[in-house]
C-alpha cells in the first residue's frame, strides 16, 4: 500500500525528509480496526517526530496522528465498530501513523465521525480536540456544565493554533470567560471567530493587558517563553496546564504563595501506557461528534493541502514549523 515516511531525520527542505513509499498492508486483530484512510491532518508532533532522530531498522517511519476514514476490517476482539463505519481518531504515537492508505488503530481511542462533517473537515479535529478536552476537564477538573463555571476565566496561549482553536470553543461552551493570545490581525480575528471574548498580545507582559488574574491558563505555545507571565497572571488557587515541554528549568516556587497548581497534558499518555481508561478517548470523541452535529462545535480546518503525498506533506510540515499556522491543514486521499 502507498504511504509517506522517512528513513533519516532531515530538514524539511530536503526532498528526502519525507518520501513516497510502499509498505505492506496490515491486518486487523484483537481490538484493532483497519481503517481506509480518507483524510489526514498535520500537527507539531509530526514535525517533532521527524526531527527526533533516525528510525530504527530498515523500514520507513510513518507519521500522522489525525485520521478520518472508513472501517475496512475489525479485529476478533473489537466490539465498538463495524465494517463500513465512518470514524475519526488520533491514534498512538508508539505505533505507525496514519499517513498511509490503510491504518491500524485500537478501537478504544476511535470515535464516530460527525455526520455533518466530511472527511476533510473531520480530520482536522481528533488530536487537538482530545488534547483540549483532557486539559480542561481532566487536568483542570472543570465541569462541562456552564453554570458551574460561571464567573471563572481562562487564558489560552496560542488561541489561533490547532489546540487553541478547539480549546477556545470548548471553554466558551463551558461557560468560561475566554481570553486568547494572538499577535496578528488574522490570528486575532480567527480566535474571536472561535469564541474568544477578547485577545491579548503574547509578546507583551500579560498582566497590564488583563483586567485581573485568570483562574485557568492553557499554554499551547512555548512554556519557557511564557512561564514568568503565567506565574504572574494565574489567580490564587488557579491552575496552569501546558502541552509544551520545557527546555529550561522553571521555578515552580513562583506558584507556592498562590497555592496554584501546574500540570502537563499529553494526549498520547493513555495509548502509550495502555491505561485501563483508554476508552475515555472513544467516549469523548463521540461526545464531540454529537456537539458538532448539534452545531455547538465547528471544525478548525483552515487549509486543504491537496492529495496525501510526500511533496504536499513536506509543504504542510514547513508551514507548521513556521509557527504561523492558523487552525489546521488537512490532506485528502492518495
Automatic annotation (TrEMBL):
Protein keywords: Metal-binding, Oxidoreductase, Zinc
Q: What GO molecular functions are on record for this protein?
A: oxidoreductase activity; zinc ion binding
What range(s) does the Enoyl reductase (ER) domain occupy?
Answer: 16-331
Top-level taxon = Bacteria
Output the InterPro entries linked to this UniProt entry: ADH-like_N, ADH_Zn_typ-1, ER, GroES-like_sf, Lipid_raft_assoc_Zn_ADH, NAD(P)-bd_dom_sf
Regarding protein family, the annotation reads: Belongs to the zinc-containing alcohol dehydrogenase family. Quinone oxidoreductase subfamily.
Write down the NCBIfam families for this protein, in alphabetical order.
adh_fam_1
Q: Which PANTHER family match?
A: PROTEIN AST1-RELATED
Name the record gives this protein: Zinc-type alcohol dehydrogenase-like protein
Provenance organism: Natribacillus halophilus
